[in-house]
Amino acid sequence: MHVFKSILLFLILSSLSLTAYSDSAMGAIDHAPIGVMADHYHKKGESMISVRQGYMDMSGNLLDGKSISNSQILAMPNPLGDMPANLSVVPTEMDMKMTMIGAMYAPSDRVTLMAMVMSMSKDMTLNSYQPMMGRNLIGSFSTSSSDISDISLGALIKLQETDTSRWHGEVTVQQSIGDNKAKDVVLTPMGMNMEMILPYGMQAGDDATRLVLGLTNLRTLSEKVVWGNQLRSRFVVSDNDWSFGDQTELNTWLQYALNKSVSFSSRLKVVYQDKLSGRNPMISAPVQTANPENYGGREVHFALGVNFLTHILPGKSDRFGLELIKPIQQEKNNLQMDTDYQFILGYQKAF
Ligand SMILES: [Cu+2]
């Protein structure tokens, strides 16, 4: 398993870094847990590059937040038509990988500029069942898609900084550039292999332009403890046929500095997302993911993380972050897949 190997690697590197003290003024605790975006600004003239790799694993399904079996799903009506009358294709597993490459530059102490490119790859395994009568399993198949999904340009504005508290705002424009009509071969309930446009959740993009607004506060509770809070919303300002719903994310985290080069974190993340808006009439298979109503909802996640500084490449410290995220509540709208865990690994280097 990726996750456990990586955790082991981090524990080994963390213990090495106990001896690899950073000589700069920066500490591991100075950046938020790696899954929090736009969490810090820079001093005039500083720049930084970052790479984040995220994984998400989903398996099984939820109806209004409660576990539902494949046979219960087959009994549900197909809302997109009456051929067939019931849902006949059921997703069983989904894996998502995200790569985010970012750059920051501070032209002044007040403003830090940000640019980011994100790419995504998605894999889904599904079962196809007879559309009527016995509803026997016809077979399993998998679909995948992969693309650069979006680019964003933004600015962080320092609002207030005291010895124990920092406030900053974020304004970002995010443009989806990923394919929103990716195709793959699907095993239909009639037992045929057909190339089709994949449902919305399997698309890397939605053609939308979004405005991201954020507000972050960091509070130093003691020499070793920082409490962070962030409210961040993404609004669709223009789209074409369809787009994923607006999203608001609330994060609160506590970080503890073991020493200057290692910090541990716990984080609570609450996400509200609207259902999908609009539709593509070509997406109409008897599968839950083809229905715009089966998107969005409220989710609460808990994360544990570690940040650490070490010296590998010349210049300032090399910064690593790892976070393991588990859902504690998934009030997803209608019928959706059940999230097992997420996992984010990151590297940051300032100049
Ligand atoms: Cu930075």
Helix-strand blueprint:
Blueprint: H1 2-17, E1 47-63, E2 66-68, H2 70-74, E3 89-105, E4 111-129, E5 137-161, E6 165-176, E7 183-187, E8 193-197, E9 209-222, E10 225-238, E11 242-243, E12 247-257, E13 262-273, E14 277-278, E15 297-310, E16 318-332, E17 335-350
Antiparallel strand pairs: 1-2, 1-3, 1-17, 3-4, 4-5, 5-6, 6-9, 7-8, 9-10, 10-12, 11-14, 12-13, 13-15, 15-16, 16-17
The structure holds copper (II) ion.
Copper (II) ion (CU) binds next to loops.
Structural class: mainly beta
CATH H-level name... which superfamily? monomeric porin ompg
What Rg is obtained from the alpha carbons, in whole angstroms?
A: 22 Å
Relative strand content? over 45%
**Ends distance:** 34 Å
* Shape estimate: elongated
Brief overview:
The protein has 351 residues and is mainly beta. The protein has a single domain, classed as Porin. Helices cover 6% and strands 58% of the residues.
Key features?
binds copper (II) ion, twelve-stranded antiparallel β-barrel, Porin, 351 residues, two-stranded antiparallel ribbon, mainly beta, single chain, 2 helices, 58% strand, 6% helix
Describe this structure in words.
- With 351 residues, this protein is mainly beta.
- Helices cover 6% and strands 58% of the residues.
- It has a twelve-stranded antiparallel β-barrel. It has a two-stranded antiparallel ribbon with strand order 7-8. Strands 11-14 form a two-stranded antiparallel ribbon.
- A hairpin with a 2-residue loop joins strand 16 (318-332) and strand 17.
- The longest helix is centred in the N-terminal third of the chain and has 16 residues, at 2-17.
- The chain is elongated, with a radius of gyration of 22 Å.
- Copper (II) ion is lined by residues 40, 42, 48, 104.
